[in-house]
Amino acid sequence: MTDKIIVQKDGGVGHIRLNQPEKLNAISYDMWQGMARAIDDFESDDAVRVIVLSGEGGRAFSAGADISQFEEQRGTADAVEVYNATMGRAYEKLAQVLKPTIAKIAGYCIGGGLATALCCDLRIASDDSSFAIPAAKLGLGYGYGALKPLVGLVGPANACEILFTARRFNASEAYHMGLINRVLSRDALDDYVDDYAETIAGNAPLTISASKQIIAEIGKDADERDLDLCQRVIDTCFGSEDYKEGRAAFMEKRKPNFQGR
Ligand code: COA
């Protein structure tokens, strides 16, 4: 395990903190592996209801993949394949975990850092954050898997602008493009995300994971959509103890206590 990924459970919230602040939380090979492991751990822990990713040090969510490793670990075709497979596994796990994921962004959110945030369901940022995909400045390629969520969020015209210019966008521009859900002052960010995560953690897990899965199916090409899965996850909600609990809590004017079954 690397100490550059801090994994912490706090009530129903699982935190993954990128911890290489001296490099603006650039993500090293070990960190990609650590991120994937942390998500596996949270996935299998029923107590974790929501996952929050953030960066340590106050200057960055992440300034991307750790470029200082590229010569050694991404310098030949074979090495690129190994590196990209490991990085891809982290993205895939993050995108596919059935629990809701939030990227809490304070500062730079660049390249692989932005791609990581794009694998999350929600992005909440401080107003002094900035966003960029500088691939065209480095000469590297951004694949289908990385561009699909980007285009899905901001549309092809904004995606072209982000990729062709490789420039930095401020939080207001990112918000208006649909890249981020919410912008807050730096001072307000932590409390806001804590409350937000706690709210989600208190809601019915089966309803949330059903919504997440159906939204993912809607994002696929029509002939790839699994409509049976969509029906199954809804049936699971209606057949659950939590649905009984939700109804009872409403009638008794109390807060529901959901168990995820
Ligand atoms: N990989 C490795 N190290 C990185 C890094 C990355 N992606 N991004 C920043 N760092 C390091 C810098 O090399 C610097 O290290 P040093 O103090 O040993 O020189 C340190 O983090 C601080 O960065 P610095 O460039 O001094 O900060 P800045 O505020 O002037 O600029 C950025 C910030 C994000 C604009 C700039 O660091 C940058 O362009 N980083 C690369 C971003 C990128 O291309 N990411 C895509 C990777 S696929």
Helix and strand topology:
Elements: E1 5-10, E2 13-18, H1 29-43, E3 50-55, E4 60-62, H2 70-73, H3 77-96, E5 101-105, E6 108-110, H4 112-119, E7 122-126, E8 130-132, H5 135-138, H6 144-165, E9 169-170, H7 171-177, E10 182-184, H8 186-202, H9 205-218, H10 227-238, H11 241-251
Parallel strand pairs: 2-3, 3-5, 4-6, 5-7, 6-8, 7-10
Antiparallel strand pairs: 1-2, 8-9
Helix pairs in contact: 1-3, 3-4, 9-10
What does this structure look like?
Helix content is 51%, strand content 16%. It is built from 11 helices and 10 strands. With 261 residues, the protein is of the alpha/beta class. The protein folds into 2 domains: 5-201, Alpha-Beta Complex (2-enoyl-CoA Hydratase, Chain A, domain 1), CATH 3.90.226.10; 205-252. The chain has helices spanning 29-43, 70-73, 77-96, 112-119, 135-138, 144-165, 171-177, 186-202, 205-218, 227-238, 241-251, and strands spanning 5-10, 13-18, 50-55, 60-62, 101-105, 108-110, 122-126, 130-132, 169-170, 182-184. A 6-stranded mixed sheet has the order 1-2-3-5-7-10, sandwiched between helices. The protein has a 4-stranded mixed sheet with strand order 4-6-8-9. The longest helix has 22 residues, at 144-165.
